[in-house]
Amino acid sequence: MPAHAGRARVTKSVDVADSKSAAARRASSSLxxxxxxxxxxxxxxxxxxxxxxxxxxxxxxxASEAAGNTWLAADTARQAYRDYDKPEADRVREFYxxxxxxxxxxxxxxxxxxxxxxxxxxxxxxxxxxYLNTLVDESDPDTALPQINHLLQTAEAIRADxxxxxxxxxxxxxxxxxxxxxxxxxxxxxxxxxxxxGCRHSERxxxxxxxAANPDHDHPVYGTEHGVYEPxxxxxxxxxxWGHDEYLYHMLKDRLPEPAxxxxxxxxxxxxxxxxQYGHLTDATDRANLPWVQKFNPYDLYSKQPExxxxxxxxxxxxxxxxxxLPAELAL
Length: 332
Known about the structure:
The protein is an all-alpha fold. The chain contains 12 helices and 2 strands, in the order H-H-H-H-E-H-H-H-H-H-H-H-H-E. A two-stranded antiparallel sheet has the order 1-2.
């Protein structure tokens, strides 16, 4: 399990009774009491990888990266990624208009109470992946391919650089939480960049101008730098906007090494791992794992190419990888 999993949630007391829904109040009470939401599956052994990669894997990866990774966009092409001003990104901006308006502190607490009990359905990992073959991420300006293709591209780029198999698996499943859309959740509540709720919105968050319509934006507590949190409380104690990252983290938190769990939980938290924001809320564990999230990001972002890998050719390898780390069925 991640070292931070059992840390107590550290928040300032704040009166929000006038705005909390019943579901949000129940979620807040459970979290404050230390209730853990867990997936309904037996834990598997977790690798202890420490903070750094083992020397042999690190050497292989460095050699491969030096030789160039054909799955990744060339350095000269990378400036074109995450361009939210190009005309074809209008759908993306509309997505963030909805996302930034509706993702409030109370909304997030309510969604955690709704989804983190994992009592809705059981599904094999491959069945969940098959569903992603029908899903195109409305928040992504860089690809119009179904999500299964993006997962394969990410994983194959990681594998080409010689990283350990748990790292490859992380690339292959990091967006698996988007299966939430299967249950009718709107995409603005599933995908997109994540950000802390319950404290001030950073201006470095993508499309930050849309936060003006968020009820929390000018709240006397939620609109302040620290909001409901204490400085240095750690990201494990900070509520991020609700989506697939947090959902999948809780589903797999007993099955993967801590660096993998950080990649899954925070890969969409661009304001932190790319823009350097919210450092005042992080702790030593967050800072130790930040390089892992940053190492993962180029594989997630720059592997989005028009020509995806052929799933049929790669499926046996990924079937074995899923069987090694995940249960035969996932509780959703």
